[in-house]
């Protein structure tokens, strides 16, 4: 894997860019950092309410016992359930806040919604279900339906609890089971618990003064109000035809929504703070032949190939060949496999030159598409490619050539300054609006057992986050922790991550199910020794990448804790997801017995 080749910018050009990037960062960094946002709770709870279930069906609280409780019914939870079923587990209960399976794809149904990871590698279990997507990048509804398809195939609905939030997990030493409590009065028992609560699941709002005063209609993109806008995710938003619509946010979501609003709304005001990079999308219909879906295991091979490339490993062929894979060298710059390429200074210089060439190409794309020079100037991104999540669209820039779309740049005022009863204030101008839509993203790390909102009481009543308070998180491979038997954590903490997160989740599900199957076979508990956690943390620390040098110079966003830089240290496996999966496979073959403890000795220890 090499960094993409492009004409090398001169040293003077690079120095000028560095200076420009610094200035653009300074325009945006705010002293309140991540505190600038508001959670969609209490008086803002309306923004997080489930628009798809008007009346939650009544049911009796559950007090029974299941084999496995899975917290979360998105792809992580569904895959955990499916892999458990494949291991022969009968009573698998998924508990999900939403009214059905799907997670992100249940909640996000905004117009234009698509996945920008290729559908043939993003949709899990294609081999198992025989489903072959027909578009390179699938629409959200197809993905949501696939989530339901997988859940149905493994009969996960029969025991699931929807519109239900888990409120605590408590280990009961005497019975060797977990007590799972929920906001619907359930208190059932489970031999094993898998937590799959997602990473970007709680919508957030900007803490703009006056936001509560707005008298027009308002909602967050992850809770799209079709009753107001009319139409479907495919468009036809007839309810907006005479409306003045404001949209705040131009991240991966805003990029997809804005062209759809432009088609149907009376007038659209796009409130932008930082422009995204918007690369070529080239969505197209695909045939089974195009994607090599002609033999068993084709989907597994394709996604392994993709993961290899985006993890910085070498591959003979690039099967997906899109802008993620061809830009992988710029996105995975922090992996040791890249940093090892010769001398570090030389690597960083080559990286900077390649990055500048890529960003010049993206800025040129704006100029070539957007006809008004002032709008084009404002849409150009000035930071390094990997500072923010890249976006892809062939419809976004052309939307700004329409007479009914106005771009309002808010960088100088650090975002929208004020919301009034009738609209939005930026600088000297008030924009009167009928509808204000927030495409302002999600709180990072504020849901699930690592956030404190879902307390986990392990052996002796010890709370997970209290146990970690002094020395930081302690796990083996990110999945299991001493003192918390039979609890399996999914997610990227001390585990691995990748742009194709469903692949990561599936590997995690396979691992979780293998642990459970081994424990069942031995009549044992799953619990790592403290020494195993120490060894894992040491292994993570040994090659931990120094993110600081890169992220400290980035424009703010959730990648760098709103400008504060990314913490160094052992937060994830440093050699990439592909290598991590190899490591897990080896460990399951050679060492899995180490984590199993006989029930009697473990319970008395
Ligand atoms: P993001 O957090 O990426 O974007 C939020 C946007 O809101 C940013 O443009 C931000 O500006 C802007 N914003 C926040 N506060 C203000 C303010 N006060 N005034 C003006 N603008 C403001 O959220 P998204 O929902 O776009 O994306 C979240 C993640 O979801 C993505 O990063 C991606 O991982 C995932 N996603 C994936 C998709 C896929 O196809 N696979 C599609 C959509 C989302 P600023 O940048 O200046 O902070």
TrEMBL record:
Pfam families: Pyr_redox_2. The keyword Lipid metabolism does not apply. Gene3D superfamilies: FAD/NAD(P)-binding domain. Its cofactor is FAD. Coiled coil: none annotated. Keywords: FAD, Flavoprotein, Monooxygenase, NADP, Oxidoreductase. Residues 67-278 form the FAD/NAD(P)-binding domain. GO terms for molecular function: oxidoreductase activity, acting on paired donors, with incorporation or reduction of molecular oxygen, NAD(P)H as one donor, and incorporation of one atom of oxygen. InterPro entries: FAD-binding_Monooxygenases (IPR050775), FAD/NAD-bd_sf (IPR036188), FAD/NAD-binding_dom (IPR023753). PANTHER family: FAD-BINDING MONOOXYGENASE AUSB-RELATED (PTHR43098:SF2), L-ORNITHINE N(5)-MONOOXYGENASE-RELATED (PTHR43098). Belongs to the FAD-binding monooxygenase family. This is Monooxygenase. It comes from Streptomyces scopuliridis RB72.
């Amino acid at each position: 894997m090499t960094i993409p080749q492009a004409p090398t910018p001169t040293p003077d050009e690079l120095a000028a860019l560095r200076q420009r990037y610094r200035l653009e960062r300074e325009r945006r960094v705010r002293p309140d950092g991540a505190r600038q946002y508001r959670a969609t709770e209490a008086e803002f709870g309306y923004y997080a309410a489930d628009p798809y279930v008007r009346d939650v069906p009544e049911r009796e609280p559950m007090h029974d016992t299941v084999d496995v409780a899975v917290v979360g019914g998105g792809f992580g939870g569904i895959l955990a359930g499916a892999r458990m079923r494949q291991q022969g587990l009968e009573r698998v209960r998924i508990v999900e806040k939403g009214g059905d399976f799907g997670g992100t794809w249940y909640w996000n149904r905004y117009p234009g919604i698509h996945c920008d990871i290729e559908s043939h590698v993003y949709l899990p279990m294609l081999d198992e279900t025989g489903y072959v997507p027909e578009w390179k990048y699938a629409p959200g509804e197809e993905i949501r339906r696939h989530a339901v398809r997988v859940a149905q195939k493994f009969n996960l609905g029969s025991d699931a609890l929807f519109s239900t939030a888990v409120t605590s997990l408590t280990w009961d030493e005497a019975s060797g089971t977990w007590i799972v409590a929920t906001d619907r009065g359930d208190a059932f028992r489970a031999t094993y618990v898998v937590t799959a609560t997602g990473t970007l699941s709680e919508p957030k709002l900007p803490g703009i003064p006056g936001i509560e005063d707005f008298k027009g209609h308002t909602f967050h993109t992850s809770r799209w109000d079709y009753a107001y806008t009319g139409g479907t995710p495919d468009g036809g938003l007839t309810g907006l035809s005479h409306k003045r619509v404001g949209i705040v946010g131009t991240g991966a979501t805003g990029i997809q929504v804005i062209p759809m609003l432009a088609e149907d709304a009376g007038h659209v005001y796009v409130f932008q703070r930082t422009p995204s990079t918007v690369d070529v999308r080239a969505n197209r219909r695909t045939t089974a032949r195009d994607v090599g879906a002609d033999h068993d295991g084709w989907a597994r091979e394709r996604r392994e190939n993709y993961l290899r490339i985006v993890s910085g490993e070498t591959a003979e062929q690039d099967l997906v060949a899109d802008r993620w894979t061809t830009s992988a060298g710029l996105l995975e710059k922090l992996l040791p496999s890249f940093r090892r390429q010769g001398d570090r200074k030389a690597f960083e210089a080559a990286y900077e030159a390649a990055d500048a060439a890529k960003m010049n190409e993206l800025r040129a794309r704006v100029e070539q598409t957007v006809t008004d020079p002032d709008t084009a100037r404002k849409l150009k991104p000035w930071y390094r490619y990997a500072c923010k999540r890249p976006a892809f669209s062939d419809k976004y820039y052309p939307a700004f050539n329409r007479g009914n779309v106005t771009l309002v740049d808010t960088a100088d005022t650090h975002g929208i300054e004020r919301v009034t009863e009738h609209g939005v204030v930026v600088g000297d101008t008030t924009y009167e609006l009928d509808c204000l839509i927030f495409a302002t993203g999600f709180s990072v790390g504020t849901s699930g057992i690592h956030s404190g909102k879902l307390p986990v009481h392990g052996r002796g009543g010890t709370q997970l986050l209290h146990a970690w308070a002094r020395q930081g998180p302690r796990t083996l491979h990110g999945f299991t922790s001493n003192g918390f038997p039979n609890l399996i954590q999914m997610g990227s903490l001390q585990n691995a991550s990748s742009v194709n997160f469903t692949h990561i989740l599936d590997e995690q599900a396979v691992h979780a199910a293998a642990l459970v199957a081994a424990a069942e076979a031995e009549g044992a508990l799953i619990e790592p020794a403290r020494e195993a956690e120490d060894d894992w943390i040491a292994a993570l620390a040994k090659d931990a990448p120094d993110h600081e040098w890169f992220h400290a110079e980035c424009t703010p966003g959730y990648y760098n804790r709103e400008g504060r830089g990314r913490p160094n240290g052992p937060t994830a496996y440093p050699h990439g997801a592909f290598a991590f999966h190899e490591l897990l496979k080896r460990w399951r073959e050679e060492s899995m017995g180490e984590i199993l403890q006989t029930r009697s000795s473990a319970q008395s220890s």
